[in-house]
Amino acid sequence: MVAAFGRHCLVESADGSRRICHPRGKKSTVVVGDLVQWLPSADEGSIEQVHERRNLLYRQDELRTKSFASNIDQVLVLLAADPVFSESQLSRALIAAEAAAIEALIVLNKRDLHPAFELAWQRLAPYRHMGTRVLALQLRNDGGETLAALRAELDGRHTLVLGPSGAGKSTLVNRLVPDAGAQTGEISRALNSGRHTTTSTTWYWTDAARQTALIDSPGFQEFGLHHIEPSDLASLMPDLRAALGECRFYNCTHLHEPGCGVRAHVMGDGMAAGGQDDPKAISASRYRIYQDLFAELSAPARY
Prior knowledge:
Helix content is 25%, strand content 23%. The protein is an alpha/beta fold. The chain has a 6-stranded mixed beta sheet with strand order 10-9-8-11-13-12, sandwiched between helices. Strands 1-2-3-5-4 form a 5-stranded mixed beta sheet, with helices on one face. The chain has a two-stranded antiparallel sheet with strand order 6-7. The longest helix has 15 residues, at 284-298. The chain is globular. The mean pLDDT is 89.
């Protein structure tokens, strides 16, 4: 499935043709990226079966679950040097990807914006230090150097793009998918949505051979992680996970227990890109995010 709006789904066949289909039953569990079996019905069709997914990226708050896409190879979190990005939102997206066993890539746009870019790049030092891929990007007034490096990371893969408003998601899609505007208009008309399809997740092919895909997703204000147990949180954060075997107690929460191996590696706020001399260094900001998320996920339900 390549797009959806309400109960209208756009399904693409092996030959590239597309058709509106409707899932059976009152509650639709189909998401973009699903492989489905469908049957024709007049000029539309019905989805009869959804094949088993190899992964699914989603977020969950106390009241509902919101799925982004399934059967993807990586998540690209697009940030910008300005406006200032939320490290908490970034970490939540990375944790959700880790929980779904999906690789993550951070891309920082607006490389030409000084000194904002240098400050933002430094904020991402802990992520580079813990092994996450981080690329610099300049979508405007660039000769193509940074975009070429990004294309190499996307080639032959199905990539879901997440990012806050102002980061340049629409510009990125338009640069990588020359006919994105035409595809969007076609999908909107087919789904009869009456609005731009970035209000829902949309699958674009970037090449004629349909080997490389970019999946555009709507923006979000919150990214709930209520599908994750507090006790699993540290294992889903690579920098904390590196020190998990060093705690005195097997059930350490890494918050207050004596002999905690995780807290022993927490650095000050001025952590450098190399983590000083500690290969297992954890930045103070990342540790605060862990503390906040642990408290959030441990709080009693309010409904």
